[in-house]
Amino acid sequence: MPLFAQLLDICATIKPKETEKVIPMTSIYDFSLENQQGEEISLSHYQGKVLIVVNTATGCGLTPQYQGLQDLYQRYQDKGLEILDIPCNQFMGQAPGTAEEINSFCSLNYQTTFPRFAKAKVNGKEALPLYDWLKSQAAGPLGKRIEWNFAKFVIDRQGQVAQRFSSKTEPSAMEDLIQELLEK
């Protein structure tokens, strides 16, 4: 029997591996995040809210955006806005420190009061599943990659990505969209 025929016979006897069924995530509420104490928090806790999901860093040239985020939070939290702060040390190590050090920095320098979660990765094999989903819903300047610290996703009250904003976009530039979504 020629070699090619033998390979075909061998291939015919190999059964494909059973693959794990992938359940598609349909909204942000299908995900959870680890809080700074290591507990999993279901994002369904934020159901019906308008959300800003942002990867942050305390040692970045864009760090002053914390002030703009806090300003939005103070203006619209009572109308249903929540900001989910996810520190990320993936971009030139600009989010060093422990959760306590990051919290202290943000409280002292920007008086932030919005929820902050555990430090995480937003790109690559170790990226949070939430970020894989967010990037699949709205491409940015680098396609599906997060370009830098302070990339922002605005999520509507139904848990869908309404718009993605680049790292360089000041939080105030999102205000019209946030107002529109809060009125719905």
Pick out its properties.
184 residues; 29% helix; 5 helices; alpha+beta; four-stranded mixed sheet
Q: How do the strands and helices of this protein lay out in sequence?
A:
Elements lengths: L2 H11 L18 E3 L5 E3 L7 E7 L8 H12 L4 E7 L11 H12 L18 H9 L14 E4 L5 E5 L9 H9 L1
Parallel strand pairs: 3-4
Antiparallel strand pairs: 1-2, 3-5, 5-6
Number of continuous helical runs: 5
Mean pLDDT: 89
| Morphology call | globular
**Radius of gyration from the CA trace?**
21 Å
Percent strand equals 15-25%
Distance between the termini: 71 Å
N-to-C order of helices and strands: HEEEHEHHEEH
Helical percentage: 25-40%
Structural class: alpha+beta
Q: Could you give the count of β-strands? A: 6
Q: Strand sequence of the main sheet, in spatial order?
A: 4-3-5-6
Show unreliable segments: 11-23
Major sheet, described briefly? 4 strands, mixed
Notes on the structure:
This protein has five helices and six strands, in the order αβββαβααββα. With 184 residues, it is α+β, with helices and mostly antiparallel strands. The strands form two sheets. It has a four-stranded mixed beta sheet, with helices on one face. The protein starts with a helix and ends with a helix. Mean pLDDT is 89; it is low at 11-23.
